[in-house]
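Budget justification note: compute hours in this period were largely spent on complex prediction jobs such as the one shown. Inputs:
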Amino acid sequence: QVQLVQSGSELKKPGASVKVSCKASGYTFSNYPMNWVRQAPGQGLEWMGRINTNTGNPTYAQGFTGRFVLSLDTSVSTAYLQISSLKAEDTAVYYCARGLSGGWFDPWGQGALVTVSS
Amino acid sequence: DIQMTQSPSSLSASVGDRVTITCRASQYISTFLNWYQQKPGKAPKLLIYGATSLQSGVPSRFSGSGSGTDFTFSITSLQPEDFATYYCQQSHTTPDTFGQGTKLELK
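Corresponding output:
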Protein backbone atom coordinates (compact mmCIF):
# COMPACT_ATOMS: atom_id res chain seq x y z
CA GLN A 1 0.00 0.00 0.00
CA VAL A 2 1.02 3.61 -0.49
CA GLN A 3 2.84 4.75 2.61
CA LEU A 4 5.06 7.55 3.86
CA VAL A 5 7.22 6.81 6.89
CA GLN A 6 9.01 9.67 8.59
CA SER A 7 12.00 9.72 10.88
CA GLY A 8 11.56 9.99 14.61
CA SER A 9 11.28 12.81 17.11
CA GLU A 10 14.24 15.13 17.55
CA LEU A 11 15.34 17.33 20.45
CA LYS A 12 17.71 20.04 19.37
CA LYS A 13 19.33 23.09 20.90
CA PRO A 14 18.83 26.56 19.43
CA GLY A 15 21.23 27.18 16.57
CA ALA A 16 21.56 23.51 15.65
CA SER A 17 20.28 21.83 12.48
CA VAL A 18 17.89 18.96 11.92
CA LYS A 19 17.09 16.77 8.93
CA VAL A 20 13.73 15.01 8.77
CA SER A 21 13.28 12.15 6.32
CA CYS A 22 10.18 10.85 4.59
CA LYS A 23 10.46 7.43 2.93
CA ALA A 24 7.87 6.55 0.33
CA SER A 25 6.73 3.09 -0.66
CA GLY A 26 3.98 1.48 -2.70
CA TYR A 27 4.14 3.87 -5.68
CA THR A 28 6.54 5.40 -8.19
CA PHE A 29 8.25 8.09 -6.13
CA SER A 30 9.16 10.37 -9.03
CA ASN A 31 5.59 10.62 -10.32
CA TYR A 32 4.22 12.80 -7.52
CA PRO A 33 5.49 15.92 -5.74
CA MET A 34 6.16 15.80 -2.03
CA ASN A 35 4.73 18.47 0.20
CA TRP A 36 5.79 19.51 3.68
CA VAL A 37 3.38 20.90 6.27
CA ARG A 38 4.14 22.34 9.70
CA GLN A 39 1.88 22.16 12.73
CA ALA A 40 3.01 24.12 15.76
CA PRO A 41 1.74 22.94 19.16
CA GLY A 42 -2.01 23.45 19.41
CA GLN A 43 -2.10 25.23 16.06
CA GLY A 44 -3.37 24.56 12.55
CA LEU A 45 -1.72 23.32 9.39
CA GLU A 46 0.76 25.48 7.48
CA TRP A 47 2.07 24.55 4.04
CA MET A 48 5.83 24.95 3.89
CA GLY A 49 6.61 23.95 0.34
CA ARG A 50 6.86 21.12 -2.10
CA ILE A 51 9.54 19.44 -4.16
CA ASN A 52 9.18 18.08 -7.67
CA THR A 53 10.39 14.51 -7.25
CA ASN A 54 11.18 14.24 -10.96
CA THR A 55 13.38 17.34 -11.31
CA GLY A 56 14.31 18.00 -7.69
CA ASN A 57 13.05 21.56 -8.03
CA PRO A 58 11.65 22.90 -4.73
CA THR A 59 9.05 25.61 -4.17
CA TYR A 60 8.90 27.31 -0.79
CA ALA A 61 6.17 29.26 0.94
CA GLN A 62 7.03 32.71 2.21
CA GLY A 63 8.45 32.32 5.66
CA PHE A 64 10.16 29.08 4.77
CA THR A 65 13.02 30.37 2.68
CA GLY A 66 16.65 30.51 3.71
CA ARG A 67 16.81 28.17 6.72
CA PHE A 68 14.58 25.49 5.19
CA VAL A 69 15.80 23.16 2.46
CA LEU A 70 13.89 20.42 0.68
CA SER A 71 15.86 17.67 -1.00
CA LEU A 72 15.57 14.13 -2.35
CA ASP A 73 17.37 10.85 -2.63
CA THR A 74 15.46 9.17 -5.41
CA SER A 75 17.59 6.02 -5.15
CA VAL A 76 15.83 5.27 -1.85
CA SER A 77 12.53 7.06 -2.57
CA THR A 78 13.10 9.49 0.26
CA ALA A 79 12.43 13.19 0.67
CA TYR A 80 14.14 15.37 3.24
CA LEU A 81 13.45 18.57 5.11
CA GLN A 82 16.47 20.24 6.63
CA ILE A 83 16.15 23.18 9.00
CA SER A 84 19.23 25.11 10.04
CA SER A 85 19.83 27.70 12.77
CA LEU A 86 16.93 26.27 14.76
CA LYS A 87 14.85 28.57 16.92
CA ALA A 88 12.41 27.81 19.70
CA GLU A 89 9.56 28.79 17.38
CA ASP A 90 10.52 25.96 15.00
CA THR A 91 9.16 23.53 17.59
CA ALA A 92 6.42 21.72 15.71
CA VAL A 93 5.32 18.51 14.08
CA TYR A 94 6.49 18.36 10.48
CA TYR A 95 4.49 16.25 8.03
CA CYS A 96 5.32 15.12 4.54
CA ALA A 97 2.40 14.45 2.20
CA ARG A 98 2.21 13.20 -1.36
CA GLY A 99 0.64 15.66 -3.77
CA LEU A 100 -1.95 14.35 -6.22
CA SER A 101 -3.16 15.71 -9.54
CA GLY A 102 -5.59 18.34 -8.27
CA GLY A 103 -3.27 19.38 -5.48
CA TRP A 104 -4.76 17.37 -2.66
CA PHE A 105 -2.50 15.55 -0.24
CA ASP A 106 -2.69 11.82 0.25
CA PRO A 107 -1.28 10.04 2.10
CA TRP A 108 0.50 11.88 4.87
CA GLY A 109 3.46 10.69 6.85
CA GLN A 110 2.94 10.08 10.53
CA GLY A 111 4.69 13.33 11.42
CA ALA A 112 8.02 14.12 13.03
CA LEU A 113 8.13 16.19 16.20
CA VAL A 114 11.04 18.60 16.34
CA THR A 115 11.56 20.24 19.71
CA VAL A 116 13.99 23.13 20.01
CA SER A 117 15.00 23.85 23.58
CA SER A 118 18.11 24.77 25.48
CA ASP B 1 -1.88 34.50 -0.83
CA ILE B 2 -5.41 33.13 -0.83
CA GLN B 3 -6.96 33.27 2.64
CA MET B 4 -9.24 30.44 3.68
CA THR B 5 -11.80 31.29 6.34
CA GLN B 6 -13.49 28.38 8.05
CA SER B 7 -16.49 28.64 10.30
CA PRO B 8 -17.28 27.85 12.95
CA SER B 9 -13.93 27.40 14.69
CA SER B 10 -15.57 24.96 17.08
CA LEU B 11 -18.81 23.05 17.14
CA SER B 12 -20.56 20.90 19.72
CA ALA B 13 -22.84 18.15 18.52
CA SER B 14 -24.28 14.80 19.52
CA VAL B 15 -24.02 11.36 17.98
CA GLY B 16 -26.57 11.14 15.19
CA ASP B 17 -26.61 14.89 14.46
CA ARG B 18 -25.94 16.48 11.09
CA VAL B 19 -23.23 19.14 11.06
CA THR B 20 -22.05 21.59 8.42
CA ILE B 21 -18.78 23.51 8.19
CA THR B 22 -18.19 26.32 5.76
CA CYS B 23 -15.00 27.47 4.09
CA ARG B 24 -14.68 30.73 2.18
CA ALA B 25 -11.78 31.59 -0.10
CA SER B 26 -10.58 35.18 -0.50
CA GLN B 27 -10.31 34.63 -4.27
CA TYR B 28 -11.85 32.39 -6.88
CA ILE B 29 -10.53 28.81 -6.59
CA SER B 30 -12.95 26.89 -8.84
CA THR B 31 -13.30 23.49 -7.17
CA PHE B 32 -9.72 23.18 -5.95
CA LEU B 33 -10.90 22.70 -2.39
CA ASN B 34 -10.09 19.72 -0.21
CA TRP B 35 -11.15 18.62 3.25
CA TYR B 36 -9.13 16.75 5.87
CA GLN B 37 -9.87 15.19 9.23
CA GLN B 38 -7.29 15.22 12.00
CA LYS B 39 -7.54 13.36 15.28
CA PRO B 40 -5.31 14.22 18.24
CA GLY B 41 -1.73 13.02 17.79
CA LYS B 42 -2.44 11.76 14.28
CA ALA B 43 -1.71 12.95 10.77
CA PRO B 44 -4.47 14.57 8.74
CA LYS B 45 -6.55 12.28 6.55
CA LEU B 46 -8.01 13.25 3.19
CA LEU B 47 -11.81 13.02 3.12
CA ILE B 48 -13.00 15.13 0.18
CA TYR B 49 -11.07 16.37 -2.84
CA GLY B 50 -12.08 18.62 -5.70
CA ALA B 51 -14.80 20.11 -3.48
CA THR B 52 -17.21 17.20 -3.92
CA SER B 53 -15.35 13.92 -4.52
CA LEU B 54 -15.29 11.40 -1.70
CA GLN B 55 -11.89 9.80 -1.15
CA SER B 56 -11.89 6.03 -1.49
CA GLY B 57 -12.76 4.28 1.74
CA VAL B 58 -14.36 7.33 3.35
CA PRO B 59 -17.93 6.74 4.57
CA SER B 60 -20.72 8.28 2.54
CA ARG B 61 -21.99 10.29 5.51
CA PHE B 62 -19.24 12.79 4.61
CA SER B 63 -19.93 15.15 1.72
CA GLY B 64 -18.75 18.41 0.22
CA SER B 65 -20.22 21.04 -2.05
CA GLY B 66 -19.50 24.43 -3.53
CA SER B 67 -17.39 26.15 -6.15
CA GLY B 68 -15.81 29.51 -6.71
CA THR B 69 -15.29 30.96 -3.25
CA ASP B 70 -17.88 29.32 -1.00
CA PHE B 71 -17.80 25.70 0.11
CA THR B 72 -19.52 23.48 2.63
CA PHE B 73 -18.61 20.20 4.27
CA SER B 74 -21.25 18.08 5.94
CA ILE B 75 -21.45 15.01 8.07
CA THR B 76 -24.81 13.33 8.35
CA SER B 77 -25.55 11.11 11.32
CA LEU B 78 -22.42 11.80 13.37
CA GLN B 79 -20.60 8.77 14.67
CA PRO B 80 -18.36 8.69 17.78
CA GLU B 81 -15.23 8.41 15.61
CA ASP B 82 -16.09 11.65 13.77
CA PHE B 83 -15.20 13.92 16.68
CA ALA B 84 -12.01 15.51 15.42
CA THR B 85 -10.69 18.69 13.82
CA TYR B 86 -11.49 19.40 10.18
CA TYR B 87 -9.48 21.56 7.80
CA CYS B 88 -10.16 22.89 4.34
CA GLN B 89 -7.29 23.46 1.91
CA GLN B 90 -7.16 25.33 -1.38
CA SER B 91 -4.91 23.86 -4.06
CA HIS B 92 -5.75 26.35 -6.83
CA THR B 93 -2.84 28.73 -6.32
CA THR B 94 0.58 28.31 -4.77
CA PRO B 95 1.10 28.72 -1.87
CA ASP B 96 -1.44 26.15 -0.81
CA THR B 97 -3.36 27.45 2.18
CA PHE B 98 -5.46 25.84 4.89
CA GLY B 99 -8.38 27.08 6.86
CA GLN B 100 -7.81 27.54 10.57
CA GLY B 101 -9.68 24.36 11.42
CA THR B 102 -13.00 23.43 13.00
CA LYS B 103 -12.93 21.39 16.17
CA LEU B 104 -15.95 19.12 16.40
CA GLU B 105 -16.66 18.18 19.98
CA LEU B 106 -19.13 15.91 21.68
CA LYS B 107 -21.98 17.81 23.32
